[in-house]
Design goal:
The complex is a heterodimer of chains A (161) and B (198). Chain A is an alpha/beta fold. Helices cover 44% and strands 19% of the residues of chain A. In chain A, helix 7 (135-148) links the parallel strand 5 and strand 6 (152-157). The longest helix of chain A has 14 residues, at 135-148. The radius of gyration of chain A is 14 Å and the shape is globular. Chain B has one domain: 3-Layer(aba) Sandwich (Rossmann fold), CATH 3.40.50. In chain B, the strands form two sheets. Chain B has a six-stranded parallel beta sheet with strand order 2-1-3-4-8-7, with helices on both faces. Chain B is of the alpha/beta class and 198 residues long. In chain B, a hairpin with a 5-residue loop joins strand 5 (103-104) and strand 6. Chain B contains eight helices and eight strands; from the N terminus they run H-E-H-E-H-E-H-H-E-E-E-H-E-H-E-H. Classes of the chains: A alpha/beta (161), B alpha/beta (198). At the A-B interface, strand 2, helix 3 and helix 5 of A face helix 3, helix 5 and helix 8 of B.
Chain lengths: 161, 198
């Protein structure tokens, strides 16, 4: 939906210092641009790690975001709960919403059943991004979450697994 | 086997004034009993296994400051991938200690699947080999208090990331660590102690 340059420009304008990530076929295409921009890329081995690495970065004064697929959200539960709700660290995330735009690769993909209810269960402030014209919505939502010192999620619709 | 209190006493001895010390599980309880400083991060409540990841984030954000993570073997086994993540970033200011008592002490001392008692083959996993395989080059293993006392200076003196594996005596029957206060308030106090400005 978004070119790497668009995402990188948005992250840079928001002052993001680190992107903590496990790639998927959509967000993985942004890695090279992120690295070239000077924003530090932290590749973790599984998504639960991303929240605690980002938590340490926030405690230490950095401004990270977590960038993962919704399947990684499913495996992130305890780390997300601890970092966002117990330590109340306002970590923003961009989460790829697999199969939202089409299910050609995975007909009947159950990520469509579980992603939004799970985000709601974790009591997260979410913006669903389904159109290229919504790039500015991500920035506006990020700024609003930062001003309120709360975590937020940009849920990025994807077309492929 | 090293007494847990003695194991942590050496950490206190080599800890610099501006070092961060992260403790979790039984190590948190023992560390708190020895007295606290503003740059101690008692990771209670935790997401078990994530002290190494939290420490990595802190080490990356505060590269001028050493971060010492006092982890347990059960916690380490829950997040072995974090060792690979750590070496991929290679922070020179990060020290990971694994205080290996072979059990989940705070839940009643059940054997971990890494301990000799918890494995059908009857021999424990080799954390030093795991650390080396994950890419650590500064790897130390101490099984006695004497060896730890003699070797700690070198282990704390080399550039990180450093991996230190200590065989410690379990303390069965002790309660798990209690949070010393509301987590969110402690996070803010810790940020202030680091001198972070937002």
């Amino acid at each position: 939906m978004f070119a790497s340059e668009q995402i990188v420009s948005t992250l840079a304008s928001l002052g993001v210092t680190h992107v903590v990530t496990v790639p998927d076929s959509t967000i993985g295409r942004w890695e090279e641009g992120i690295q070239q921009s000077g924003i530090k890329l932290v590749r973790v081995c599984r998504e639960g790690e991303a929240w605690s690495v980002a938590g340490g970065l926030v405690l230490g004064g950095a401004t990270p975001i977590v960038m993962i697929q919704c399947t990684g959200l499913f495996e992130s539960g305890d780390a997300l709960r601890n970092m966002l709700h117990e330590w109340k660290l306002p970590i923003y995330s961009m989460i790829g919403y697999r199969s939202y735009l089409n299910q050609d690769t995975l007909p009947g993909d159950t990520t469509l059943v579980f992603t939004e209810p799970i985000l709601a269960a974790w009591k997260l402030d979410v913006r669903l991004i389904t159109e290229p014209s919504q790039l500015s919505v991500i920035a506006e939502h990020y700024r609003a979450c930062k001003a309120a010192a709360i975590p937020g999620v940009a849920l990025i619709a994807e077309g492929n697994a | 086997m090293i007494d847990l209190t003695d194991a942590l006493a050496a950490v206190r001895g080599f800890r610099k004034a501006d070092d961060v010390v992260i403790t979790t599980m039984a190590a948190s309880r023992a560390w708190m009993e020895g007295g606290m400083q503003p740059l101690d991060f008692t990771f209670v409540p935790s997401c078990m296994g994530h002290a190494t990841s939290l420490g990595l984030g802190l080490a990356l954000a505060q590269p001028q400051r050493r971060v010492i993570v006092c982890n347990g073997d059960g916690s380490m086994l829950m997040n072995l991938g974090s060792l690979v993540t750590i070496t991929s970033q290679a922070p020179q200011n990060l020290v990971v200690l694994v205080l290996d008592n072979g059990v989940y002490e705070v839940t009643g001392a059940q054997p971990t699947p890494g301990s000799a008692e918890g494995r059908s083959l009857g021999h424990a996993v080799d954390f030093a080999a795991i650390a080396r395989g994950a890419g650590f080059t500064a790897v130390y293993h101490f099984s006695t208090a004497e060896a730890w006392t003699a070797g700690a200076a070198q282990a704390f003196g080399v550039p990180g990331p450093v991996f230190i594996w200590l065989d410690v005596q379990p303390v069965p029957g002790r309660a798990g660590p209690r949070s010393p206060g509301p987590a969110a308030q402690r996070a803010q106090a810790f940020i202030q102690a680091l001198g972070v400005r937002r």
